[in-house]
């Protein structure tokens, strides 16, 4: 009898609790890879390429083509407070210098007014040179006004 049974591989985006059952699709906010026996939600600071929002938003990854069955770390200069939503870009005057951030942080007051620095993330690196009052940072070095 077993000779006639066809065993199917459980596809990505589904879970298969038993080999003899049809694959069951994951909920929209969940992910799974091939041969998974359960679906799971992404952790905070991570997001899935296809999410369960009512708009059916497809998140395009910043660095490469998305795979809808995986969780990805939130990219730099983005926040991922809700794994069901696409990464949110940090607004001007804020930054996220680590991957998998769940929120953006305010730039230092001096830093947000620095010229020739394009992102606050760069400004965070520039803060370590400890410019004194009346100095500015054109390219990671302090120059007198």
Write the layout of secondary structure elements.
Elements: E1 14-15, E2 24-25, E3 30-31, E4 40-41, E5 46-48, E6 71-73, E7 78-79, E8 88-89, E9 94-95, E10 105-106, H1 120-127, E11 135-136, E12 143-144
Antiparallel strand pairs: 1-2, 3-4, 5-6, 7-8, 9-10, 11-12
Task: Summarize the structure in short.
This is TNFR-Cys domain-containing protein. This protein has 145 residues and is mainly β.
Q: What's the β-strand tally? A: 12
- SSE order, one letter for each helix or strand: EEEEEEEEEEHEE
Strand content: 15-25%
Number of helices: 1
Helical percent range? under 10%
Provide the low-confidence segments as ranges: 51-57, 112-129, 139-145
Cα distance spanning the termini = 86 Å
Average the pLDDT over all residues and give the rounded result. Answer: 65
Major sheet details: 2 strands, antiparallel
Rg calculated over all Cα atoms: 22 Å
Strand order of the largest sheet: 1-2
Structural class assignment: mainly beta
**Globular, elongated, flat, extended or rod-shaped: what is the shape?**
rod-shaped
Domain TNFR-Cys: 90-131
Protein name: TNFR-Cys domain-containing protein
Organism: Rotaria sordida
């Amino acid at each position: 009898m077993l000779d006639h049974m066809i065993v199917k591989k459980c596809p990505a985006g589904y879970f298969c609790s038993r080999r003899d059952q049809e694959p069951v699709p994951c909920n929209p906010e969940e992910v799974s890879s091939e041969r998974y026996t359960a679906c799971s939600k992404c952790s905070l600071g991570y997001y899935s390429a296809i999410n369960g929002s009512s708009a059916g938003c497809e998140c395009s990854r910043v660095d490469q083509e998305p795979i809808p069955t995986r969780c990805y770390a939130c990219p730099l200069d983005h926040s991922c407070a809700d794994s069901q939503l696409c990464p949110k870009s940090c607004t001007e005057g804020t930054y996220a210098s680590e991957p998998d951030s769940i929120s953006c942080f305010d730039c230092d007051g001096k830093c947000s007014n620095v010229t020739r620095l394009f992102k606050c993330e760069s400004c965070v690196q520039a803060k370590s040179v400890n410019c004194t009052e009346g100095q500015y940072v054109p390219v990671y070095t302090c120059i007198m006004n």
